[in-house]
Amino acid sequence: MAVRMQAHRWQDRVRQLTVDKAVLLPALLLALLGLVMVGSASGAIAVDHGVSPYYYLIRHGIFLAGGVLLGMICLRVPVRWLQKCSKAMLLLMVLVILLPLVPGLGAEVNGSSRWINLGVARFQVVEVVKLMLIIYLAGYLEQRANLLPNRFFETLKPLGLVALLSVILLAQPDLGSAMVLAAITIGLLFLAGAAWRYLMILLVAATPMFGYAALEPYRLRRIVSFLDPWADVNGSGFQLAQALIAVGRGELFGVGLGASVQKLFYLPEAHTDFIFAVMAEELGLVGVLCVIVLYFALITRILLIGLQAHREAQPFAGFVCWGVGLWLAMQALINMGVNLGVLPTKGLTLPLISSGGSSLLMTCIAIAIVIRVKLELDRTRLARPQTRNNTGRRDFSVGSMA
């Protein structure tokens, strides 16, 4: 009878488990802030395009609702299902990333063929590829992590895959996403224990490819303008100069929500790639620091959940969390760096904030997968057999290491 009662207690505790608030709360705050900032930054652009001033706000809200819905669905998908699909991701990634190059299916925007036309909206397929790559690498590293320190070929294979994906992305062209994929892969290989000497050899070998891509005329102009945007303030340095003006106008507390001047046809892509500059202008240094703190809290928590998964002998789940954390960290750092003038201009969105349906949907799904990992970790710990504590009483093995 006592054993049955204690089994019911375990079941009750498992039912009472909730989503990890340390992940959900900062993600929700960033998403809500993104909704507000897209509405603030896009009104003039929408009117200029001949649509309602609320067009991009409504569009962003629809994608956010869709992302939440997809995230709720993904919360019901066991991590082991993703693990079983990890090998299939290898072929799927290559097929998906080639879709924009298919005549009649790909859609060209601003000279880049990164999107596919779904009729009601365009979708940037590289956002799906980022998550697919993380799932594939998690399965690969789970099986070969013990071989990485001593076998060069085990380190070469995933980087060879990323090189292939990068070549396809550079043909679209999308150097920014190629850099994010490379950073995720190198970061996961390093965390899995790959030898530094192997990573450095491969990085040196890949340098000519990225160097050649950087020498494209328009990219070379971006690099030159990044070094001195004021030298050609009405030409190649226009975007960065306007972003820096927006950041400077914000000062400590900003000019006020909705009061940005730079978004009024001065700052290109004010609601997408340069929304961080608009935030800096309207919310000031204090607002920018709050955004950075939210990203830091979210990414740190995701990485800690990955660490907990490894300590609980669930390496696949751990690598997935680390991959998602690296993805969000790299993309946020690059976007902020571009807006602050410390990195050359790249077409990357600010996760959960920028207007961009593809990025928003996939980020919501990725965060939902992390929350699912944490739920499964907590269930595993609650379902363990009872152990005796120091007082001699029987107790539950309940707790969290992150």
Please tally the β strands and state the result.
Answer: 5
Given as residue ranges, the uncertain stretches (5+ residues, pLDDT < 50) are 387-402
Cα end-to-end separation: 35 Å
Q: Which structural class is indicated by helix and strand composition?
A: mainly alpha
Number of domains: 2
Q: What amount of the residues lies in strands?
A: under 5%
Q: Specify the number of helices.
A: 14
What can you see in these coordinates?
The structure is a single chain. The chain has 402 residues and is mostly helical. The chain folds into two domains: 20-76 and 217-379, no CATH class; 91-215. 66% of the residues lie in helices and 4% in strands. The protein has 14 helices and five strands. It has helices at 2-15, 21-48, 55-74, 79-85, 89-98, 126-144, 152-171, 175-192, 196-214, 217-227, 238-250, 275-311, 315-339, 357-382, and strands spanning 106-109, 112-117, 122-124, 387-388, 394-395. The protein has a three-stranded antiparallel β-sheet with strand order 1-2-3. Helix 6 packs parallel to helix 8 (175-192). The protein is globular, with a radius of gyration of 23 Å. The two termini are 35 Å apart. The relative contact order is 0.15. The model is unreliable at 387-402 (pLDDT under 50).
